[in-house]
Amino acid sequence: MTVEIGIVLAVVGIMLLCLIKEAAKPEVILLVTLAVLLLLGVMEPAEALRGFSNEGMLTVGLLFIVAGAVQQGNALNYLVKMALGSGNGRKKSLIQMMFPVAGLSAFLNNTPIVVMFTPLIRKWCRERGIAPSKFLIPLSYAAIFGGTLTLIGTSTNLVIHGFMLEQGMEGFSMFQLAVVGLPAGLIGVLYMSTVGYRILPDRRTSTEAFSESSKEYLSQAFVEKGSPLAGKTVEEAGLRRMEGFFLIELIRRGNRSAPVAPTDVLEENDRLIFTGSFTTLVDLQNIKGLQLETGTDLKLEELQNGNAHLLEAVVSHRSPLAGRTLKESCFRTVYDAGVVAIHRNEERVKEKIGDTELKPGDTLLLLADGDFLHRWNNTKDFYLLSEVTKPDIVHSRKALISLVTLILMITLAATGLLSMFEAAVLAVLTLFVTNSISLEKTRRFIQVDVLLVIASAIGIGMALEQSGTASFIASHLVQISSGIGVIGALTAVYFLTSFFTEIITNNAAAVLMFPIAFAIAEQLGYDPTGFFVAIAIAASASFATPIGYQTNLIVYGPGGYRFSDYVKVGIPLNILYLIVTVSIVQFVWLG
Q1: What domain of life does the UniProt record list for this protein's source (predicted)?
Q2: Measured in whole angstroms, how far is the alpha carbon of residue 300 from the centre of its chain?
Q3: Which of 109, 158, 257, 348 could crosslink 56 through cysteines, CB 3.0-4.6 Å?
Q4: pLDDT attached to residue 575
Q5: Strand residues in 146-286 grouped as ranges (E)
Q6: Predicted pLDDT of residue 279
Q7: Which of 282, 292, 360, 372 is nearest to 332 (CA)?
């Protein structure tokens, strides 16, 4: 082992540890790692910046725009509602739901698909007396199944495709991955509608948990006649920063104001709604001129009326809120919404709401005005799961143009008339020329942090390859699996990729494993394409944890799931995917 290999192994090892410990955002960790490798002289500047001009990475950015334009329409909602059917046969409805979701995820970004369908499925289940926990994990898994069917199913597929092009290979065709993805997905649907359905828990949702325990955290008070608080602002009255309590709504003569601004002036007979720990009720009782109503039967539904709306939001894996309390993030000021309650691990968080450190997957119950949904609908900070009653639907002509553009893009790339990158460029150009998407919405659809992860990971992958580190690791893996031959090496590549996907981002896992898999294929004398197919499938097929894939995280809180639910249902599915992938790859590419 050379000194250079030792340096790369140490730097990459520290990077993996930082990603596992969540020391910072993934894009920051990978960017810093790339900079360190550059400064240590492991790679030249041109090599370090190679990822920022990689065709796969640029194609991902363009596809964010195309998918965003298509998802502006409301047609997808009706598709899933029709697919679910009457609900008389629950397993039949489950299968009917999973197929169209997988089909859509093969061509569109699966994160917004799951965000869009989660409230629809919860409402459908509630109307039929079915526990949504029986349908929401299958929703997430169906989106993952679909992502393994096509070149554009996930950004990971495109990243590997871009790497293959840089190695002088042809890259993946549009439906090449379906050779493995389709049979694996069909087995996955069969598993989820039989064994998986029985393992899935029958639990209440976050909405039900919030409603059932509302008496424990909601209270109301009135500003008395002649109260010294009358004429004072909320800030001046000392109601802005109370220990353990938040003022979330002000009701005056039937008119509701939420969230409550610190500059709002109080009047006699104002009704004030608070949320927080009842152990600190004495703080409210000690405020002169404020009459606390105890023993009232205040319900969540009473909070929303007129311009005040209850919404649910899941803290995303990329959120700046993660690791910070509501006070530290100045939530009410930044987002102009009040947090009524927090749901985590199947139950409401009972500690002081302002001092609760938020985690990815936490479900926040928000009270906000009617414009909140449209202001924050495409934020990376959280996933909004409340069903839009008056959606911001684009003109039907624009929606049709977006859909036709997507179909033409897929056709041009699939037939080989244009490369995937060229087809995506043409699609985006068409959307702009026809005014089907605005520049403002384009900025909202492009996930810059994802692109930074991809570009940085590609540079780190180059360092692994050029320094000889990839060949060094590959030789040891070949040695370990020598008794089983190429199947052993392929299994090791799949397993390592799957393991890294569960603890770091899927794109980073795929890029780190690419040069190692390439070196293994060279040492064994096999076509590396089969190994790259295995990496693409393994990087997406993340079922065993809620944190391994973003769609799993989205349904975590709303479904009332525990971490162990994913382990019980997901590990057998991970094993099934490994067996199917290794078997087909060995037969088609390595036989």
Answers
A1: Bacteria
A2: 27
A3: 158
A4: 94
A5: 218-223, 245-252, 255-257, 271-276
A6: 58
A7: 372
Q: Spell out the residues 6+ positions from residue 54 whose beta carbon is closer than 8 angstroms to its own.
A: 159, 162, 163, 166, 454, 455, 458
- Would you state the structure tokens that stand for residue 128, as one six-digit string? 């039929």
Q: What is the Cα–Cα distance from 66 to 409, expressed in whole angstroms?
A: 9
Could you tell me if 119 and 314 are in contact, meaning their C-beta atoms sit under 8 angstroms apart?
no
Contact (Cβ atoms closer than 8 angstroms) between residue 553 and residue 546: yes
Higher pLDDT: 531 or 90? It is 531
Mean pLDDT, range 29-41, rounded to an integer: 91
The DSSP output letter for 586 is H
DSSP SS3 for 389? coil
Q: What is the DSSP string of 115-147?
A: HHHHHHHHHHHHHTT--GGGTHHHHHHHHHHHH
DSSP assigned state of 455: H
Task: Return all residues near 531 (Cβ < 8 A) that are at least 6 apart.
Answer: 490, 493, 517, 518, 520, 521, 585
Query: HSE (CB half, 13 Å, CA atoms) of 531?
Result: 27
* Amino acid at position 405, single letter: T
Going by CATH, does the domain composed of 208-384 fall within 3.30.70.1450? yes
Residues facing 367 on adjacent strands: 310, 338
Q: How does residue 368 score in pLDDT terms, banded at 50, 70 and 90? A: confident
The per-residue pLDDT for range 192-218, each reduced to its tens digit, is 999 999 999 887 766 676 766 666 677
Question: Rounded to a whole number, what is the distance in angstroms from the first to the last CA of the chain?
Answer: 33
Which helix (H) or strand (E) segment holds residue 229: the answer is none
Inter-residue contact 451 to 60 (CB < 8 Å): yes
The DSSP result for 246-276, as a single string, is EEEEEEETTEEESSPPTTPBP-TT-EEEEEE
Contacts of the segment 422-430: beta carbons below 8 A, 24+ positions apart: 424/59, 424/62, 424/63, 424/66, 425/62, 427/62, 427/66, 428/62, 428/65, 428/66, 430/401, 430/405
pLDDT exceeds cutoff 90 at 367? no
DSSP state of 506: H
User: From residue 426, how far is each of 170, 430, 433, 448, 568 by CA, in Å?
Assistant: 21, 6, 10, 21, 44
Domain positions in the chain are 208-384
- DSSP track, 73-108: SSHHHHHHHHHHTTSSSHHHHHHHHHHHHHHHHTTS
Q: How far apart are CA 512 and CA 26, in angstroms?
A: 14
Find tokens 């096999």 and name the residue: 526
Rg of the chain taking only CA atoms, in angstroms: 26
Please, are residues 107 and 406 in contact by the beta-carbon 8 Å criterion? yes
Find out whether 531 and 517 touch, Cβ atoms under 8 Å. yes
* pTM as predicted: 0.83
Amino acid at 206: S
Which helix (H) or strand (E) segment holds residue 360: the answer is none
Beta-carbon contacts of 551 under 8 Å, excluding residues fewer than 6 positions away, are: 110, 111, 114, 139, 140, 143, 144
Q: Which residues pair with 384 in a beta bridge?
A: 313
In the numeric block, which tokens belong to residue 228?
């010294």
